[in-house]
Design brief:
This protein has 447 residues and is an alpha/beta fold. It has helices at residues 3-17, 49-58, 73-87, 97-102, 118-127, 142-154, 169-179, 214-218, 250-261, 368-381, 391-410, 427-430, and strands at residues 39-44, 63-69, 92-94, 108-111, 131-135, 159-162, 186-194, 268-274, 287-294, 299-306, 318-324, 327-332, 336-341, 346-352, 414-417, 422-423. The chain folds into two domains: 3-166 and 369-389, NAD(P)-binding Rossmann-like Domain (Rossmann fold, 3-Layer(aba) Sandwich); 168-202 and 215-365 and 396-433, Dihydrodipicolinate Reductase, domain 2. A hairpin with a 3-residue loop joins strand 12 and strand 13. Helix 5 (118-127) runs parallel beside helix 6 (142-154) and helix 9 crosses helix 11 (391-410).
Amino acid sequence: MSSNQSRRKFIKDSATTAAAALAVPSIIPAEAFGANDRINAAVLGINGRGKSHIQGFMVQDNVEVTTLCDPDMNLLKQRQKDFKDKYNKDVALEQDLRRIMDNKDIDVISIATPNHWHSLAVIWACQAGKDAYVEKPGSHNIWEGRKMVEAAEKYDRIVQHGVQLRSSPAVNEAIGLLRDGYIGRVYMARGLVFRWRPSIGDAGFEPVPDGIDYDLWTGPAMKRPFTRNLVHYNWHWTFEYGNGDVGNQGIHETDLCMWGLDVGLPTKITSMGGKFLWDDAKEVPEVLTSVYHYPEEDKIIQFEVRPWCTNTEEGVTVGNIFYGDKGVLVVDGYDSYKTYLGQKREPGKSGSDGAMSGSEYDRGAGGTDGHFANFIEAVRAHDKTILNGPVETAHLSSGLAHLGNIAYRLGRVLTFDPDSERFVNDAEADKLLKRNYRPPYVIPENI
């Protein structure tokens, strides 16, 4: 069995079942946790999604967020106050995530840092004997994504990818329909990210504000002069720290495209787009259309990012559409689906988890809380097969986005070898599979 076939089998099996480095300290096996043993958690990155991570842990039985970590002490103090107000409990603060790794009282970490920190933080956590929940995308580039997988395997750690739709009963039901041939032979998936993304302007450069450790924020990336166009959210729109919207919101959809089609990484990739709306500091394309071809499987993925006024497709602005020779299956967001059968588009089966709260990220059993519950269950059992979003799928779904971005940046059709995870006779493209890491925040060649 080739390595690519093995990876595809891993995805299928996981879907069917639900699916300078630090010195390594002595590891306490996670299976030592009993049902009544408290799991101590640290949240890394607390500006955006990190707030949902705090809640995701705090609603779990016998799980306590004991430490918040962020390079910005101003944010930390505000979140500490918010934590006290909401939970009537104290929480420790830490700016340097390396001290989190050294703290043996912390059992699990969740990573909601900027993208360029994700894989290295997971690797350091695994080496320190901690289990990890990592926000999407799992990686900032393809090479480090594979290293993240290697670390989880070598150190036998539980790593969950933050794509909560994998914990949605409705989406799992939809995947079952695709596998059972409900819409016939499924040959194409389309991922949609039509989000309202305004101009970010150009804030210019300024001295680093008091309270921010900008060296830690920059971490493994190359350091640029400080600007509000990076800290805290708009780093998404640079290639140095983010991956554009295909590597932001889009990872939910790249993941579902691959899961639904039962494929790994593609052989042919092309991508085209650009900036058509705003004369601002964004570097990534506002509009991006990518096509991923799987000639051996006779399947194709189309992916589109739009930032402003647009139509919907099948009533969806963020989601997925699967095309079979007998019908169409539409996944809207994170937790509902519909089907249309035949030439007359007769309504078929549909399903929804329903609304559990006012937040789009906490809807139904497939929301963030449910995905954290799945992670904690796997941690207590020390059983990675329980995970709905295991580390290999984090690497692959993120990798699909990275391949589209590389094709866009080079402006040509690329040929990729999924077995070696390198391009075919294309040294220029291969250079974009990895970054130059800034010491001491370096991912080692040998994990």
